[in-house]
Structures are given as structure tokens and as C-alpha cells.
Automatic annotation (TrEMBL):
This is Ornithine carbamoyltransferase. It comes from Nonomuraea wenchangensis. Keywords: Transferase. PANTHER family: ORNITHINE CARBAMOYLTRANSFERASE, MITOCHONDRIAL (PTHR45753), ORNITHINE TRANSCARBAMYLASE, MITOCHONDRIAL (PTHR45753:SF3). GO terms for biological process: citrulline biosynthetic process; L-arginine biosynthetic process via ornithine. Residues 147-293 form the Aspartate/ornithine carbamoyltransferase Asp/Orn-binding domain. Belongs to the aspartate/ornithine carbamoyltransferase superfamily. It comes from the Bacteria. Transmembrane segments: none annotated. GO terms for molecular function: amino acid binding; ornithine carbamoyltransferase activity. InterPro entries: Asp/Orn_carbamoyltranf_P-bd (IPR006132), Asp/Orn_carbamoylTrfase (IPR006130), Asp/Orn_carbamoylTrfase_sf (IPR036901), Asp_carbamoyltransf_Asp/Orn-bd (IPR006131).
Length: 303
């Protein structure tokens, strides 16, 4: 039995397999309608997010299952992981658990105690499902990712960390432009460097123009909503001028939700370079691919 809590749980063959299966489900949305027939998938949410919930619910439905929701008040997955019984008990009712919580350590404890596969759909430090959708979108528009460059501009996030882990598996160059003290977790960077023997490179710089130089794609995410934070981050706004400093015909990605005029200009997100809607839509086939792989033990077979 396998879980997917972070991109580093995969090797390069498994990642390629998931992306290929996601492409398959995008072309054939009802390719496995009986996989979850008369079975349920539990979405355990202490950090609910509609943009994640909707594609996951739809993925479960397309695979023939029924999504259930648990949003406990005082109960937390961490307690389940430490005590063991609640995580194990869930396996008697459901085929798979999808977590949307804050603490990554709690997700790990929960998965260790669970008797069914666990998918991390969103935690503070990692976002493997969003990253699969991002890589899927990049492949659709750029082809083979080896030797390609993606620039992430703005404060590092859970998606940044998952993209960093994907670098060694794809041969992608990732340039992260972030303010001082808002860059990627050094531990994530260190692990990525150790795993980078297969190619790929991570560059961290405070200069957004240096990051986007020769980039094939530029991405950003939502900024903090306070006026002070927005003012401090203005140099990291993705503008038409910043995008023009990238490589020829770059594409633009955003992990949503977005605020036009904050982290990105309307002219960029609504312009011809934007692939934001395709990127958001790819969460659905990516979720189908991961669920299928976890439920059928096909990850190990893909090596």
C-alpha cells in the first residue's frame, strides 16, 4: 500500500506514469467508471479549500465512488496518528483518505496509522496534487521538461516546495525569486540537492528579473492580504514587463485564488500567455490518476 504525501514519495518513473495517466484521464474522463463502485473516499479537512474540493469530489464521482467529508472541531488527524485507532477505523468505512490539513507531521502520523491509502491534497509545506497539475500543464505546452526553465516569483509556498522536489525527477530548472526570509525551506532545498543526480537544478535569488531570464514559464501564487505585505511584495508582482524579460513566448501559471493588481497584473493573467484556466482544470485528471494508482498499486509496477 502506498500513500502520496509529497512529490519526494515518487521516483521519476512513477511521476512520469502519473502524468501519463493524467493525460489519459483528460482525454477519456470516464476511463475507469467502476474503480470506486459502491465505495467511499473520505475528505478529512481542517483547512477546507473549494478549488481543491470540487475537482477531488468530481474525480471520485467519475471513478464511480461517493465522496464523504469530515471537518472535525477539536479532533485533529494528529491525535488519530498518535493513538492509531481512528486512522485504522476509517479503513473499515472508506477506500481512500484525502487530507486537507495544516501540519505535515500530522499527515505523516495519520498515514502511518491508516490501513488505506492517504493522499495529501493540501498541507502547509507540500502540495503534490497541485504540482502534478502544474507539471501536466507545462508538458502540454512545452513538451519534454528536461532543459526547460520555470520561474516562481513571490514568497515560497507549499507548491514551491513540491516543485523543488519535482526538479530532480523531471530535469527541470526551477528559479525561485523570493524576498529575504520568505524563500524555500532550507531542508527541502537540501534534500532536492541530494536527489538531483538525475538532472535539474534549483536557483534561489531575491531578484525576479534574474529568475525569469530565459524562463519558458513564470508562475506565482496568492499573496498575503494585508496592505503592508502587499506593499513589501510589489517588486515581485508579475507584470507584462517582467514577463517580457523571460524567454520567447513564455506561459504564465497561477495556483489560485488570485488578486489582479496584487501578485499579478490583469494584462498578464487575462492575456495570451496565461494558462491559468487549463492549469486549474488539470487538477481533476491529476486527482483521478493519483487515486487510480493508489487504489490499484500501480505505482510500483510503473518502475
Amino acid at each position: 500500500m502506498r500513500h502520496l504525501l509529497r512529490i519526494a514519495d515518487l521516483d521519476r518513473h512513477e511521476l512520469r506514469f502519473l502524468l501519463d495517466r493524467a493525460d489519459h484521464f483528460k482525454a477519456r474522463p470516464l476511463a475507469a467508471p467502476g474503480l470506486l463502485r459502491r465505495r467511499t473516499v473520505l475528505m478529512y479537512c481542517t483547512r477546507p479549500c473549494a478549488r481543491i474540493r470540487v475537482p477531488i469530489e468530481t474525480a471520485v464521482s467519475r471513478l464511480g465512488g461517493t465522496p464523504l467529508h469530515a471537518a472535525p472541531g477539536r479532533g485533529r488527524p494528529g491525535h488519530a496518528g498518535r493513538l492509531g485507532e481512528p486512522s485504522q477505523m476509517i479503513g473499515a468505512y472508506t477506500a481512500l483518505v484525502v487530507l486537507q490539513i495544516c501540519d505535515d507531521a500530522e499527515a505523516v502520523r495519520f498515514a502511518r496509522a491508516a490501513h488505506v491509502p492517504v493522499l495529501n491534497a493540501l498541507t502547509d509545506a507540500h502540495h503534490p496534487l497541485q504540482t502534478l497539475a502544474d507539471l501536466m500543464t507545462l508538458r502540454e505546452h512545452l513538451g519534454d521538461l528536461r532543459g526547460r526553465k520555470l520561474a516562481c516569483v513571490g514568497p515560497a509556498s507549499n507548491v514551491t516546495h513540491s516543485l523543488i522536489e519535482a526538479v530532480a525527477l523531471t530535469g527541470l530548472t526551477l528559479a525561485v525569486a523570493a524576498p529575504e526570509n520568505e524563500g524555500p525551506d532550507p531542508a527541502v532545498l537540501a534534500r532536492a540537492e541530494e536527489a538531483a543526480s538525475g538532472g535539474g537544478k534549483v536557483i534561489v535569488t531575491p531578484d525576479p528579473y534574474e529568475a525569469v531570464k530565459e524562463a519558458d514559464a513564470v508562475c506565482t501564487g496568492a499573496w498575503p492580504v494585508s496592505a503592508a505585505a502587499t506593499a513589501a511584495l510589489i517588486p515581485y508582482r508579475v507584470t507584462a514587463d517582467l514577463l517580457s524579460a523571460a524567454g520567447p513566448d513564455p506561459i504564465f501559471l497561477h495556483h489560485l485564488p488570485l488578486r489582479r493588481g496584487a501578485e499579478v497584473e490583469a494584462a498578464v493573467v487575462d492575456g495570451p500567455a496565461s494558462r491559468v484556466l487549463a492549469q486549474a482544470g488539470n487538477l481533476l485528471p491529476a486527482a483521478q490518476a493519483v487515486m487510480e494508482a493508489l487504489l490499484t498499486n500501480r505505482l510500483a509496477a510503473s518502475r
